Amino acid sequence: MNCVLGPGNILHDTLLFRVIYDGVGHVLPCWLSYAVAGLAIMLILVNGVLLGAGLFSWVERRLIGRFHNRIGPNRWGPFGSLQPLADLVKLLLKEDLTPKGADRIIFAIVPVAMLAPVVLVMAVVPFAKDTALANLNVGVLYILAVTSITSIAIFMAGWASDNRYAMFGASRGVAVLISYEVPVVMSLLGVVLVAGSMSLADIVSAQTVPFLLVQPLAFFVFFAGTSAELNRTPFDLAEAESELIAGYHIEYSGVKFALIQAAEFGAVLTSSAVMVTLFLSGWSGPFSNYLGWAWFLMKIGVLAFIFSWIRATFPRLRIDQLMAFAWKFLLPLSIINLFATALEVYFLRDSAGTLDTTDLWIMAGINFGLAFACILVFGTLIREKVRPAGPATGATLSPGEAD
Amino acid sequence: MPIQTEPMTVNIGPQHPSTHGVFRLRVTFDGENILEVEPIFGYLHRGTEKLAEERNYVQIVTLTDRLDYVSSMINNQAYCLAVEDLLDLEVPQRAKYLRTLTAELQRVASHLMGIGFFLQDLGTLGTPLMYAFRSRERILDLFEMLCGARITVSYMRPGGVFFDAPDDFWPALDQFLKDFETEYKEIEQLILENEIVMVRTRGVSVLPLDLAINASVSGPVLRASGLDWDWRKMDPYDAYDRMEFDVPIATGGDNYDRFWVRIQEIHQSIRMVKQCIQQIEPGPIRADVPLILRPKPGAEAYGRVEASKGELAFYLVSDGGISPYRCKVRSPSLINLTVTEHLLVGWKLADMIVTLGSLDINMGEVDR
Prior knowledge:
The complex is a heterodimer of chains A (403) and B (368).
Chain A: H1 15-25, H2 30-67, H3 83-93, H4 104-121, H5 139-147, H6 149-160, H7 164-195, H8 200-206, H9 211-214, H10 216-229, H11 241-244, H12 254-279, H13 288-313, H14 319-348, H15 357-386
Helix pairs in contact in A: 1-2, 2-12, 2-13, 3-12, 4-5, 4-6, 4-12, 6-7, 7-8, 7-10, 7-14, 10-12, 10-14, 12-13, 14-15
Chain B: E1 8-12, E2 24-30, E3 33-40, H1 48-52, H2 60-65, H3 72-87, H4 93-121, H5 127-147, E4 156-157, E5 160-161, H6 169-191, H7 195-201, H8 209-214, H9 220-224, H10 231-234, H11 255-279, E6 300-306, E7 311-317, E8 326-330, H12 332-337, H13 340-344, H14 349-359, H15 363-367
Antiparallel strand pairs in B: 1-2, 2-3, 4-5, 6-7, 7-8
Helix pairs in contact in B: 3-4, 4-5, 4-11, 4-14, 5-6, 11-14
């Protein structure tokens, strides 16, 4: 018997799924082969993300080692590349402590709740041509919905740990995540307008010109917002090492800590993957029919490198400055970008409502000018607003010349 | 009307990555804002002053190393000046220059560490700290050439220094000064004009000059509040009367100014090291000092230096025995800490850590 996947099924476009489904469909009943194919592809995805997270943890430690004038982990495996495995074994063998006053159930759920959105996001991201697990027509919305689970997980961690440092970290983390969600969503709307679709596959195929060029302001806002949501410097308030030691995951040890770490490193990769798909034209590139996955991974690597670079360079902002940065700087920028994009799309689209490559280039030109002007103007404004007013005790003067 | 929240009391330390040792603060927070601060110290108390009463005058040098363990040379210097005053010892010229040179190198090392940890407290992932440590390691290597130790040097002795510099010390020092120029420029470029550093530190935790004077604060913390107060200029000891240098002063008294003063002082210290290299001449390195020092009964002496953290002084009283009757340490870190409460109340948790970093305390010296 042969099972046929109807074209209405969201998995119809997924090449790998179809191959597995057709293969096992010869021996198994249709419903079972559907489940087997689904499980197989989920297994690949989950393990792929976790493996990537492990690999990235090594890469980042090596990179930051270089930024620090150190060597970084180099003992086990070629260039220390098996270090994540060693870390994992160490963490698995460690005692799994739960604080006395902790809410045990919530405390135990947290690591899974942290990791789940990271893996779930990858379900809609196309790795290569027709290789997304599910080509949802509301892919962008799905990503936004799934990533906001993280804020709940962070608050659960802080609340369940019965630790005041964790509570500090959690309240900071939630404040940051909720604030930065707004400009991030607004910046994505610009991309959706230009692409004319919320499906990630359509957004990739709409990028005859990478949206990084067409929507520079949206990329900037999205990048800054994402680094805030990922809790990475200069926005790593939720786990501010020098202030809160480890923030919301201060009480986690052993395998739970390993999962939280995996979620953090994996989140960098999945965020990079989303950014690659939305702004860097995803898997497309020369020979993308065969080498789409290579282009995709390479672009993720570039973005992940930039994330590490930023992490190694900047000091941390304070909570009020961070909020001001979101509400007074990123939000106006994303609104301006949205309006400008809407106007451009309205005037440039042809009768069928689509934009061709020339239109995109024109938009790129306009938007680049706009981006520079806006960042200049708002940057000057925010500098005055973020700079704290001195306390009542004395006026602040700049350092004078050496005596 | 602002929302009323329940105040929360948190212990910051004694085990905390940013308290520079085993310092503890009991802080009451309203959300992120600090309502009350109670500094608690004594976790590193080793009874240095009492131990000094049981040891002879040369042995005490090793105790001073362990006070402010990131600037042991300067501690040695302050103690030796006190003993020399007690016994009216005349220090040879070459020893004076060697002391000045090592003290200034130590000041560079200490300030580099202060700057590095200050930026670490600001939330950098250790990059500026590692840059600072790169140069500090070189200085410690130089100390190793001089006396075989890197941190607890015990290099100086009453009446001079213990070893003369070996022949390969001078080329190594020249090479260090040459490399340091570029290395230090890299650090400055990385941090001095950084917008986030500015935003986080400018106008934060201002120490007004009158309070600074009343609280007897000294060193870079005082100079950042706007007072030209440096014992190397006002009461020159060792070879400082022949040194040409400026005293960097800032007027804001905020975290940035304290940080800025340290950055500038490194330039001046390097300037003095270069002058020492030019002016030093061969000669004896230690006065003719008996093995066991016995000051006259009732003799008192106060040895005072401008240490990297502020005014460091040893007050020695002799009863004619081989060890001092009383040895009092005036440690700058402890006295600079007395203004903590004023600096912190009203600011946020994140500012608190940075302010502690800008005071550049050392718990070895605070608790003694």
